């Protein structure tokens, strides 16, 4: 074999590895611990992960309304990073790099190199607008979504393959354990695959698939259920991750259509995906004869399902729309391939052998990615973060209020960041005095009523030394004058917890204003001594 032929695959792998790494670095710049503060949800999961690493249990010692996967992944990541958010960032990088790789391999297999690069760029463009600081439950399962679609292609050719069927079930189950809404790709993939076997009346393959896919679904759920049942928390897990969320999802906060909001957040990526979806419909007659018909059916059925299930409560949170990205990736690549066939094929581009050199598309894409990485300022942000990591006592960025709290309390003392800001507890290395991280809970349910009551009991038993009003506009202020202003503005909760006035009165009677840090009032417990 000629030496040049032998080195082409290695060269391509190196170029692709560098390209995918720089793409991941570019998107994850907004999660850079050296230059960015953790967002609210990030703080929930990091704080709970830290508590798990200390031996505490979710749903008992710390409560959050998500299935357990995100908590334990954060616990692992913090152990990896020795307590620093850099461990979380590293895990995010690994998952995103894997998702990029899987999406590229999927798209290349379907439509070739150029459409694959285009599809990857488009979905990452959308992710850059919806990641919102990172460490979200929708972020990590992206890898599983692309793997599920790769498995579908394999199962089209070999439907009785036990390992592929088992893995497809596992991917669905693991996605569910991050957030039930996430599993739309896997669920639609399994349904379409099963329906295709029934259509062919391939009964042996159908029942083989049903057994192994079901086993894959059951195993992670059974393990998680057994673990929490062993600790007497199975019912608590179901309440938090399923029952509470059913009420939460049924309580609409806005009248805005998720379709409209999704297009606003995903920007150009959503419009390119829409073009691809319309082209799939337009070419349906040809697609019906395609060997990849099940995959096209997943696109046709799964795309509207993702739109509907991403934000049923109309919360308008951008990270919800990351669930659209696998569909956008495929639809964008299909649109590019259609354009390529109809227009570019008519051009005389074959005269240039350089364009069709095996390494050229990867090299060109790498140069574009490097240019954007540098010119957008993200390279400089990483250099600043590395300088902080290796030369500063503050190895990652912390908020001024977190630094103040750490310096004005003793280890082991409790601090309440009003309302619901565990990221500040995480950054200040001070535990919250309560297990219910949400307060006030504004969802009308029996679970909320119980947790609101638990919160008040906890802060009376574990008296926080400091209470910091974080100044959220829609949460009642600790300052009575500002509360009246909130009521006049119409942002005061219309259905507050029954014990809210009692909680506010308790804080007013037992705490005095100590300082105001960055417009955030800090109240100290009467009788406590500043270190």
Overview of this protein structure:
The chain is mostly helical and 531 residues long. Residues 1-6 and 348-356 have low confidence and may be disordered. The chain is 63% helix and 4% strand. Helix 1 crosses helix 4, helix 4 runs parallel beside helix 6 and helix 12 crosses helix 15 (325-342). A hairpin with a 2-residue loop joins strand 3 and strand 4. A four-stranded mixed β-sheet has the order 1-2-4-3. The termini are far apart. It has two domains: 95-344, no CATH class; 400-525, no CATH class. It has 22 helices and four strands.
What is the topological layout?
Blueprint: H1 3-27, H2 40-53, H3 69-80, H4 85-111, H5 113-130, H6 142-157, H7 162-178, H8 184-200, H9 203-230, H10 234-250, H11 258-266, H12 268-282, H13 284-287, H14 293-310, H15 325-342, H16 360-375, H17 378-391, H18 400-407, E1 415-418, H19 422-428, H20 446-461, E2 466-469, H21 480-489, H22 500-510, E3 511-517, E4 520-525
Parallel strand pairs: 1-2
Antiparallel strand pairs: 2-4, 3-4
Helix pairs in contact: 1-4, 1-16, 2-3, 2-19, 3-4, 4-5, 4-6, 5-12, 5-15, 6-7, 6-8, 7-8, 7-9, 8-9, 8-14, 11-12, 12-15, 18-19
């Amino acid at each position: 074999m000629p030496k040049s032929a032998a080195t082409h695959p290695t060269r391509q792998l190196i170029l692709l590895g560098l390209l995918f790494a720089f793409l991941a670095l570019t998107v994850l710049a907004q999660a850079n611990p050296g230059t960015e503060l953790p967002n609210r949800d990030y703080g929930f999961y990091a704080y709970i992960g830290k508590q798990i690493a200390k031996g505490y249990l979710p749903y008992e010692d710390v409560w959050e309304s998500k299935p357990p996967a995100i908590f334990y992944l954060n616990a692992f990541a913090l152990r990896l990073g020795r307590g620093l958010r850099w461990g979380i960032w590293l895990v995010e990088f690994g998952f995103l790099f894997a998702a990029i790789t899987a999406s590229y391999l999927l798209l290349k297999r379907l439509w070739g190199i150029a459409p694959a690069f285009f599809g990857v760029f488009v979905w990452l463009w959308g992710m850059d607008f919806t990641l919102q600081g990172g460490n979200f439950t929708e972020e990590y399962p992206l890898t599983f979504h692309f793997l599920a679609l790769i498995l579908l292609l394999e199962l089209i050719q070999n439907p009785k393959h036990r390992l592929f069927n088992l893995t497809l079930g596992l991917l669905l189950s693991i996605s569910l354990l991050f957030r039930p809404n996430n599993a739309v790709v896997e669920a639609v993939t399994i349904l379409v695959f099963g329906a295709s076997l029934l259509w062919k009346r391939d009964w042996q393959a159908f029942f083989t698939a049903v057994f192994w896919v079901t086993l894959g679904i059951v195993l992670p759920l059974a393990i998680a259920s057994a673990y929490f049942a062993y600790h007497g928390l199975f019912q608590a897990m179901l309440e938090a991750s399923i029952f509470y969320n059913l009420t939460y999802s049924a309580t609409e906060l806005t009248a805005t259509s998720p379709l409209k909001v999704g297009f606003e957040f995903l920007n150009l990526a959503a419009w390119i995906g829409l073009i691809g979806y319309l082209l799939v419909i337009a070419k349906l007659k040809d697609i019906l004869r395609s060997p990849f018909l099940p995959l096209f059916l997943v696109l046709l059925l799964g795309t509207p399902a993702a739109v509907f299930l991403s934000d049923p409560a109309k919360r308008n949170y951008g990270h919800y729309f990351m669930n659209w990205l696998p569909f956008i990736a495929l639809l964008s690549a299909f649109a590019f391939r259609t354009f390529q066939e109809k227009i570019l094929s008519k051009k005389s581009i074959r005269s240039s052998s350089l364009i069709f050199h095996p390494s050229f598309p990867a090299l060109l894409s790498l140069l574009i990615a490097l240019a954007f990485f540098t010119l957008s300022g993200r390279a400089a942000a990483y250099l600043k973060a590395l300088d902080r990591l290796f030369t500063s006592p503050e190895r990652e960025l912390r908020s001024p209020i977190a630094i103040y709290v750490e310096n004005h309390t003793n280890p082991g003392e409790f601090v309440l960041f009003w309302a619901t800001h565990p990221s500040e507890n995480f950054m200040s290395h001070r535990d919250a005095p309560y297990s219910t991280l949400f307060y006030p809970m504004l969802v009308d349910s029996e679970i909320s009523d119980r947790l609101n009551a638990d919160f008040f009991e906890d802060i009376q038993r574990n008296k926080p030394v400091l209470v910091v009003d974080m100044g959220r506009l829609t949460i009642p202020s600790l300052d009575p004058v500002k509360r009246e202003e909130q009521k006049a503005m119409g942002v005061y909760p219309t259905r507050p917890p029954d014990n809210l006035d009692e909680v506010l009165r308790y804080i007013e009677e037992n705490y005095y204003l100590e300082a105001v840090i960055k417009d955030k009032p800090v109240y100290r417990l009467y009788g406590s001594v500043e270190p």
